Amino acid sequence: MGLCLPCLGEPVPPSPDPEEKRAKLAEAAERRQKEAASRGILDAQSVEQKRKRKEKIEKQIATSGAPPEGGLRWTVS
User: Fold this and answer.
1) Residue 38 CB coordination number (10 Å)
2) Rounded to an integer, what distance in angstroms lies between the CA atom of residue 55 and that of residue 53?
3) Measured distance CA(75)–CA(77) in Å, rounded
4) Which of 44, 52, 55, 66 could bond to 38 as cystine, CB 3.0-4.6 Å?
């Protein structure tokens, strides 16, 4: 009584299109990546703005040439 056999009259369900399946898997991977990146962060938009601002400042420093004497740079985080 524990055996379950598929009905002989039912057709096998069609498998999804490989391209459609790939697209869904890619979307799921991107969603998981975003969730993992923002885990523990309450305001993800603020963090993204700070990161962009920091990259912009670093790029300006790199293009401006050598730092002033001593080469020390103070940062506040």
Assistant:
1) 14
2) 5
3) 6
4) 44
